[in-house]
TrEMBL record:
It comes from Halobacillus campisalis. It is an enzyme of class 2 (transferase). This is Molybdopterin molybdenumtransferase. It catalyses: adenylyl-molybdopterin + molybdate = Mo-molybdopterin + AMP + H(+). Belongs to the MoeA family.
Length: 424
């Protein structure tokens, strides 16, 4: 085995991964099942909103001209000819001297050009007829939501490549998209390698540990919008690993293995790639943790060899697998967002390579503040439960102090419970 590996910069590694084509298949899903899927078609207004002039209030639809002379001392009296709720239409146009009792959302009757809210009107009955009075003039178009004022038929509202959030779903419903075209979720296979691995329901044995990476990575795959396919554990036996990996490639769009990518005697993945005839895009990155993350491709299909160390595995996934999944989904923005934040704790160790510290980001006293989520070591699992961001410390730096400005990679904005606290 060649022990020397030349580290490449993180940006170069990401570029190499994303330079590979990712196939995007399209499927139709029912609107009910469309949440968080990625649109494979543009959403265009199939009609104007609102489709008709409508009332924003409960009140009286009237013609403003009939109120021209209204005043406190001389209110105008109008004959209320009918009542319409939302979903109903007036039976005829209103004539001068007439009003229609109208509810929020109902169509403005012909002949009316404004709505007087109930609060400014009085009503009375006389000779079996209903009347309303108003003590002030109304303006033309006052309190009317005009047809097409929100959007016009044919307007492009949401572009393909956008994630379907609750608001997009509301638009699908508004415009009658009972089915919508989305990109198929890529299937991402996962093997956890290592003879030391026990299943979650097995009792601990000397020298062994439970397999946490498989559960963590399948959740990361789901969070990224893809479909995980857990294929099981593989002991460190070359023939078995080679067979399992080559079979799995027929079942998945891309394959993740965890463990066995370093230079140890039982690190078998480099030999597996070689026997498969795969091209190794890189096997060493100038970063911590996850420096041994290896990516190889065979016939355009990607194999991500993530580290066995849980923190390194986690970071390797988010930096290299996540954007490739987004690319496979044709998402317009494949990367995690990176923002500026304030370091909440001293981190004094030197950084020979770029360091991605598992962090917890929160809004503190009006500032985006980040703290390490736990022990900053590649082999650590406990900090990951509190991780919602990575603190990026640049390579070639000697240490950072509390209050320093740092880059923060956001993993999932929803996870920062304090992040969206509202002072109101
Ligand atoms: N001589 C060298 N040794 C090591 C180097 C090096 O450059 N030279 N790199 C170190 C770095 S950095 C890392 S990171 C690890 C990476 O090792 P591997 O990715 O090959 O992973 P393994 O050796 O298989 O396992 C590492 C560690 O993680 C535990 N593990 C493995 N799988 C799981 C799992 N599914 N769930 C939980 N924990 C898992 C495993 O038991 C090991 O303790 O190599 C360093 N060594
Ligand atoms: O891959 Mo190792 O985590 O760089 O420490």
């Amino acid at each position: 085995m060649n022990l020397h590996r030349e580290p490449i910069p993180v940006a170069e590694a990401v570029k190499r991964v994303l330079s590979l084509e990712a196939e995007n298949y399209i499927e139709k899903v029912k609107i009910e099942n469309s949440y968080d899927r990625i649109l494979a078609e543009d959403i265009v207004a199939t009609h104007s909103i609102p489709p008709f002039n409508k009332s924003p209030y409960d009140g009286f639809a009237i013609n403003s001209e009939s109120t021209n002379d209204a005043s406190k001392t001389s209110p105008v009296h109008l004959h209320v000819i009918e009542e319409i709720g939302a979903g109903h239409r007036a039976s005829r146009a209103i004539a001068p001297g007439e009003a229609v009792r109208i509810m929020t959302g109902a169509e403005i009757p012909e002949g009316a050009d404004c709505v007087a809210m109930f609060e400014i009107c009085q009503t009375y009955e006389a000779e079996d007829k209903s009347y309303m009075t108003i003590k002030r003039p109304m303006e033309k178009r006052q309190n009317i939501i005009e047809q097409g004022s929100e959007t016009k038929k044919g307007t492009l509202l949401v572009e393909k490549g956008t994630e379907i959030n609750p608001g997009v779903k509301a638009l699908l419903a508004t415009f009658g998209y009972s089915n919508v075209q989305v990109y198929r979720k890529p299937v991402v296979g996962v093997f956890a390698t290592g003879t030391e691995l026990l299943d979650v329901d097995q009792a601990l044995e000397p020298g062994k540990i439970r397999n946490s990476n498989a559960y963590m990575v399948t959740a990361q795959i789901e969070r990224s919008g893809a479909e995980p396919l857990y294929l099981g554990k593989l002991a460190d036996e070359f023939d078995r690993c080679y067979e399992a990996v080559s079979e799995a490639l027929n079942k998945v769009d891309m394959l993740i293995t965890t463990g066995g990518v370093s230079v140890g005697d039982y690190d078998l993945m480099p030999d597996v790639y070689e026997k498969l005839g795969a091209e190794v895009l890189f096997n060493k990155i100038a970063m911590r943790p996850g420096s041994v993350t290896t990516v190889a491709q065979v016939n355009g299909q990607l194999m991500f060899g993530l580290s066995g160390n849980p923190s390194a595995c986690y970071v390797g996934f988010e930096l290299y697998v996540y954007p490739y999944i987004q690319k496979s989904l044709n998402k317009t923005e494949p990367y995690h967002s990176i923002i500026e934040g304030i370091l909440g704790t001293d981190i004094m160790k030197p950084n020979p390579f770029t360091r991605f510290i598992r962090g917890s980001v929160a809004y503190e006293k009006g500032k985006v503040t980040v703290h390490p989520a736990g022990i900053d070591k590649s082999a650590v699992v406990t900090s990951l439960a509190h991780t919602n961001a990575f603190i990026i410390l640049k390579g070639g730096t000697r240490g950072y102090q509390k209050g320093d400005e740092v880059q923060v990679l956001l993993l999932s904005p929803n996870e920062g419970s304090q992040f969206f606290q509202i002072d109101a």
